[in-house]
Fold:
Amino acid sequence: MLEYGALKTDIVLQPVSGKALPVLRGEVLRIIQEEGEQCVDFNAFNLHDYKEYLGVSNTRSRNAFRVKKGDLVLSAASRDRPMFLILEMAETCRTDLLGGRCRAGLFERRGYGLHTNCQDTMAASIGEYDLTPDDVHDSLNVWMNTEWDSLGRYFTIRNSGRKGDYVDLLAIMDTLSVPATCGSGDVGWTSNFSLKPIRVQVYAASQETLARVEEIERRHLGLKAHKTPDQFKVSKIKTDRELRRNPNYVPEFVNYPITSKPIRVTLNGEQLKKAKQLVEVGFGKDVAEVIRIAVMLWYTANREPTRGGRFGLKLSS
Amino acid sequence: MADSKDEETIDVPFNQQQYVAIEKLRDEGKFGQTDEEIVRNIFLEFLKQEGV
Structure:
């Protein structure tokens, strides 16, 4: 375990409350189960540019439906940069990147009237920094034990968090971090039908945490894809709400238009026979497509740094 | 051994984004220099890797 700096912040968030906290590059945010079995919703923003915020779908597609210790939490496209490294995570902590965040309408439709919910809790928390309810985004849900079935149906099962369990998030950039005690858990398994407090701590950066940040920056920053607002074709943030068409606007699509060029390949009889067998098993609709898919799959598996592995082809006997 | 009369020549289309991979493989120098050599050799590597 890394050695952290001094404890800077130590607060208890009462049920159905949240707090927007600056957590700077190299600092560690610790979220602790004060009593256990409480779901925590988490939002985060780049402290210097709130338009860069935690990207649930980016994080999901990079890692899995659930994140775990050692995973990177990314900002949303268009930025797609590491925001946090999950340094520590209790084994009882199941995370969720599917549920988004609960909102008042969910409960009103179920007949509960105005019920506590994470959308409103987050909005109340980030208001301290002049952010609006529209700035709340889907949450990284911590201690939210969700499952899904083969039809894609999604449901929550018993919260497995225990008193004292914690999750440590290392900030890779200066962030406004917003943990909130989920407000849905008194009417579901999200928090086992009761609402409990959580404890939140922030530890100062240390040489070790900063070294880890630098290592992540070396490995994961510097892609052309990491665009900054000064590179945006439209970079000014709209200040009015009405949408109006700009008749002078000309879109610039990436690599547009897509064009193909044929590469002429000669196969001998044996090679051709194998290619045709692959057509027969549905690998491609003709020999040309079979060859192209094979080349791209081979490249993906053998030359792309984050991929690998065989495709697992089976020809009919 | 396959007879040359069994040979067949196929036009395999690659778009400009896929072609980046072929250029990178050319830079490696291991799979040939021409587009055709690279595509055929990688196709054969794929078959070998997949046990086809």
About this structure: Chain A touches chain B at residues 255, 258-272, 274-275, 277-278, 287-288, 291-292, 294-299, 301-303, 310-313, 315 (CB under 8 Å). The longest strand of chain A covers residues 82-89.
